[in-house]
Amino acid sequence: MKKLMTTAMAAALLAGCDTTTDDFPQLGYEAGAVIDGGGFGNATMNNVMVQSAPEEYRVNLARRFASEIDSTVTFEFNSTVLDADAQRVLARQADWIRQFPEVRFRVYGHTDLVGSQAYNRGLGLRRAQAVVAYLASQGIGRERLEAVASFGETQPLIATEGRERRNRRTVTEVSGFVETNPLVLEGKYAQVIYREYIARAVPPTSLTALTGLGGE
């Protein structure tokens, strides 16, 4: 009787193993034979994206740049001159850009709808070139700046055939990374993205703390 029960229990266990194997076929292979399909949750998914999708870095930085800094400057009619307001905006852009030496930026030029499309395309490009030159004068390496793809009059903010300053603009955007290696950041994504936040968290030195106690 004891032998019969043992045989029955073994059969039941084997049946249970068969069912488990049917439900989880990877258990029927040696370890490492089945490649993970990314089904271990968000943590695995996010890690894979960070390691294999540098485009995500660019998008995140572009969103930060556009939300924290005014990316647009405007121009007088038929002009490429950067007035005082434009220079102030570009100085702030340069301050932001200097925080991210790994990143390249592209400047797009636009015009209003007055004038021919061919002339306006050239004018838009010259405006972009003026912005690049100014950013370079603020210590940004020219290899990280690009004045390209002038949209001329084809992408107005305000739909009007007349003169409109808001359409006469340049837009600075994050375009990519200095290196072409897709793993240029080598696991330092958070360090780069949040560099200035980390710097702000550093406590002041004793000397700084003391000098801040008195005086006006």
CATH class descriptor name: Alpha Beta
- Domain unit count: 1
Rg from alpha-carbon coordinates: 29 Å
The computed structural class is: alpha+beta
Number of helices: 8
Let me know the number of strands.
4
CATH superfamily: OmpA-like domain
Low-confidence stretches: 207-216
Shape: elongated
Q: N-to-C SSE series?
A: HHHEHEHEEHHH
The largest beta-sheet arranges its strands as 1-4-2-3
CATH fold node name:
60s Ribosomal Protein L30, Chain: A
User: What is the strand content?
Assistant: 5-15%
Q: Estimate the mean pLDDT confidence.
A: 75
Distance linking N and C termini: 98 Å
CATH architecture: 2-Layer Sandwich
Q: State the helicity in percent bands.
A: 40-55%
Largest sheet: 4 strands, mixed
